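Suppose you are handed only these lines of text.
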Amino acid sequence: MNLRLDALVTEKIVSARFGDAGAADIGGYEASGGYRAIRKIFGQTGPKDVIEIVKASGLRGRGGAGFPCGLKWSFVPDMDGPKYLAVNADEGEPGTFKDRELMLRDPHQLIEGILIACYAVGIEKAYIFIRGEFDAPARSVNKALAEAYEAGYIGENILGSGFSCDIYTHMGAGAYICGEETGLLESLEGKRGHPRLKPPFPAIVGLYGRPTVVNNVETLSNLSHIIERGADWYAGIGIDEKNTGTRMYCVSGHVEKPGLYELPLGLTLEEIVDGHCGGMRGGKALKAVIPGGASAPVLTTKEIREDKIRMDFDALARAGSMGGSGGVIVMDETTCMVQAAQRLALFYEEESCGQCSVCREGTGWVAGIFSRLENGRGVPDDLGTLESIDVNMRGNTICVLSDACAMMFGAFVKKFRSEFEAHIEGGRCPLGSPYPA
Ligand SMILES: Cc1cc2nc3c(=O)[nH]c(=O)nc-3n(C[C@H](O)[C@H](O)[C@H](O)COP(=O)(O)O)c2cc1C
Ligand code: SF4
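From them, the structure of the protein bound to flavin mononucleotide can be written out as follows.
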């Protein structure tokens, strides 16, 4: 494999305007080059050529699965009648806090990205599905939408190009499962956020039964830069041709400087923790890291310090984990791994939509067993029971929340088994549990 280490030093892209307080206003956005990308392509570059540019850039989805963006767009059939873009701004994955900042601080960048996506795919209506708790980000986006309508960037015959597009916001109501793309579409349609069985995929049968693209806020926020500066420029950033551009890493937990870091794809986790985040808090030893939101299997110190795992989509997948949502949760030597797993299991139990019995029952069983273990009431059979639940929860359900839960707890039990055994043998958590059974 050819690693391009020289491509790992770069400027910020989607967060470049974060230091500029005026960037959230249309004047500030335009002054810093905003809305130049749509001027460049609307009426000048054919929609299919725009899809080819995005494909050539190598941009992959930043919402969770890392699916190539241009390829996803190319699945949408070229047919008459409405097609839709659903912007995923639900951001419910534990440990993730980037989309809210992108909407708050640079809402026009998102709007311009939406316009580019809609133009490329021939979409005239886009819905931004915003997590219900995101009051300030939603206000920022709504204000920016009003400004962009006023300036003629949204609406009928944009910039005289003949292309028309409307953009609406829709507030979620606080369910994690509405971040799953088909749960999101159901919710947008005014129904309960129950994921749909796939196939058919949303690109073919999506919102109101019509072809629909679902893209994450960060994914779309990259587009104006790719159009302006070219696919080759973007593809030149990152560790290899399949892991291009930057990611917004949301680093939380036991580091000296937790926060949001936009960095090129492919730095090692160690470089992020020790370099950018100032090392472990109080000089404590690193114990584990969840590299991509709660669903990404936990990594051990050995994997981080000895194997030097890189934070790109494919390196993390090879290591049995995933880049997921970019939420990096760092844990030091004082962390009880049973307690950490219990906390996450309680989350999945709460958020399962309940449609599939293995998920509805499985998440409840897992949370119950972890709570028992953490409270010193575990029995030796518990670990075997967890292993059998793990197998049953994978690949058998409508959406992958069940798999995500299994991946999460499977990795905790496998990699930190001795801690689980110590809880059973000692009849208590060595650190004491804040979560009652
Ligand atoms: C349970 C679950 C929750 C999800 N939550 C989110 C979310 O909050 N935001 C998001 O962008 N993607 C989320 N996803 C991923 C979406 O289903 C979808 O893949 C993504 O929005 C596609 O956008 P992208 O291709 O730009 O990444 C979630 C997936 C699952 C299974
Ligand atoms: S896997 Fe869980 S969250 Fe997904 S549809 Fe089935 S019950 Fe709902």
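What can we learn from it? The first helix runs from residue 26 to 31. The CA atoms of residues 82 and 210 lie 7 Å apart.
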